[in-house]
Design brief:
By secondary structure, the protein is an all-alpha fold. Helices cover 74% and strands 0% of the residues. The protein has 4 helices and no strands. Helix 1 runs parallel beside helix 3. The longest helix has 25 residues. The protein is globular and about 40 Å long. It starts with a helix and ends in an 8-residue tail after the last helix.
Amino acid sequence: KQWYQRRVRDGICEVISAAGWLVGEFHEHLEDKEKVLRDIFSPKVLDLPPHIQTILVQASIKIYGSIITDNETLGADEDSKALGEFYLSKITMFTDSNDLEVQ
């Protein structure tokens, strides 16, 4: 039973890994970029293996940059400032990681 649960978890982790890569690479197609960004910073993400956390860090950078670019086009400087403060407050969950590949 324990072996089976580990395999299921590993399978789900690989799906999350692929999804993280997809949202990072194709962020321009996301309907709600800010929601996806906030979901990446869910505390549950810290339970994922380091190589998946790394993918999510990279995706967050791409999505964050895309949102800032969109806000600049719309002249939404205050939204960008608030998002920047949010991002800086949350990214520390990864930069404080014990795993070098996540930092």
